[in-house]
Amino acid sequence: MLVVEQNGLKYLTFERFGNVTHGIFSRHGGVSNNHATSLNVGGTVGDEPGSVLANKQILFGALGKNTSSMFDCWQVHGPDYVLANSPHTAASHTNPREIRADALLTANPDVTLFMRFADCTPVLLYDPVRRVVGIAHAGWQGTVKHAASNLVRGFTHIFGSDPGDIQAVIGPSIGPCHYEVGHQVIEQVITSYGRKANELLQESAHGKAHFNMWAANEYDLRNAGVEHIELAGICTACHTNDWFSHRAEKGRTGRFGVIMALPEGME
Ligand SMILES: [Zn+2]
């Protein structure tokens, strides 16, 4: 994992993704000057629409991409993936026909996958053999619905990927140190992960259950046959100076952006 600092931006890249254009962007380097300071890309958090647009342009521009290549969607905490064959830039929660998905994949270098996070777990996938990239958005709901392994199945079903070829990154999200959960979540983790749930739900010093979404998503990916997995190991709630955290900032925060695109000009 590399931390890149450039023009006020600070973002993570991963050597295992080779020449894939990608970044997990911290909150630094944008134009928002409010509770969503500063590189907020969330359109539903009370930030100025003009600032959100400018931030998207900054983020894409930093990696040499145009926002016209963006594939955006309405993230709804579900298990479903969508094949992003061509750019889709009009994402808006006010548009009833908006594409709803929590995982995207593409083999088209003209498409830049884009998703937003603030505590939910970003899962980034790259198959260097079939030349496919994908991102999943896995909060507790996406994690118990197996959004990450569903995305692996998308790679397999659509592009014939061998999960053993896939390189995976589990990005910054709320960590086991901070993610206290209640009965509703506990029950669904047990239903979804069976005996493994004992390890995924750890008891804090105060006797509360903490859900380890990092370990859950790693387990989910391994069950789907993915072997090459890197964990960023960064808790967003521990590091609100760098990352937006819905939990730690009590909902008054922004969303950070993750993008992924295949290099252009490849056969
Ligand atoms: Zn923490």
Largest sheet: 6 strands, mixed
| Helix content, binned percent | 10-25%
Mean pLDDT: 95
CATH topology: CNF1/YfiH-like putative cysteine hydrolases
> How far is the N terminus from the C terminus?
27 Å
Q: Given the structure, what is the number of helices?
A: 6
What class, by secondary structure content? alpha+beta
Shape: globular
* CATH evolutionary superfamily: CNF1/YfiH-like putative cysteine hydrolases
Order of helices and strands: EEEHEEEEEEHHEEHHEEHEE
- Which molecules are bound in this entry? zinc ion
Question: How would you describe this structure to a colleague?
Answer:
The structure is a single chain. The protein has 6 helices and 15 strands. By secondary structure, it is an alpha+beta fold. The protein has a single domain (2-261), classed as CNF1/YfiH-like putative cysteine hydrolases. The strands form 3 sheets. Strands 1-2-3-15-7-4 form a 6-stranded mixed sheet, covered by helices on one side. Strands 5-6-9-8-10-14 form a 6-stranded mixed sheet. The longest helix has 14 residues, at 49-62. It is globular and about 50 Å long. Zinc ion binds at residues 175, 177-178, 235, 237-238. Zinc ion (ZN) binds at residues 175, 177-178, 235, 237-238.
SSE diagram, text form:
Elements: E1 2-6, E2 9-13, E3 21-25, H1 49-62, E4 70-71, E5 81-83, E6 103-106, E7 112-117, E8 121-127, E9 132-138, H2 140-144, H3 147-159, E10 167-170, E11 180-181, H4 183-193, H5 197-200, E12 201-203, E13 209-211, H6 213-223, E14 228-231, E15 256-261
Parallel strand pairs: 4-7, 5-6, 10-14
Antiparallel strand pairs: 1-2, 2-3, 3-15, 6-9, 7-15, 8-9, 8-10, 11-13, 12-13
The structure holds zinc ion.
Zinc ion binds next to loops.
